[in-house]
Write a structure and sequence with these properties.
single chain; five-stranded mixed β-sheet; 3 helices; 5 strands; 16% helix; binds FE2/S2 (inorganic) cluster
Length: 107
């Protein structure tokens, strides 16, 4: 199962193994990772699952959809070049080992 490292805003690292097809938002909210809310349940409608993706993995992800691009304009913390919505990133073997940092706030 693909492994994901979440780095919470205070620097705490959480290591989670996700079944293929799960989103990084699901992996966080179902494993007690602080800092991802996922209010809309993963339908790309809330921007409370904002993460900063480690640069080494950006090229391995599908580019953001138009809807994700629009929602990334609504994040509570500043949008950076490596900002993504974690509900739109699905675990698969290509991103095994991915590292994402969580922003200071989601609301
Ligand atoms: S959970 Fe709402 S946009 Fe990701």
């Amino acid at each position: 199962m693909p492994k994901v490292t979440y780095i919470e805003f205070d620097g705490t690292e959480r290591h989670v193994e996700l079944p293929a097809g799960w989103s990084l938002m699901q992996g966080a909210t179902l494993n007690g990772v602080d800092g991802i809310e996922g209010e809309c349940g993963g339908s790309c409608g809330c921007a409370t699952c904002h993460v900063y993706v480690d640069e080494a993995f950006l090229d391995k992800l599908e580019p953001p959809s138009e809807t994700e691009e629009e929602m990334l304009e609504c994040t509570a913390a500043p949008r950076e070049a490596n900002s993504r919505l974690s509900c739109q990133i699905k675990a698969d073997p290509r991103i095994d080992g991915i590292v994402v940092r969580l922003p200071e706030t989601q609301t």
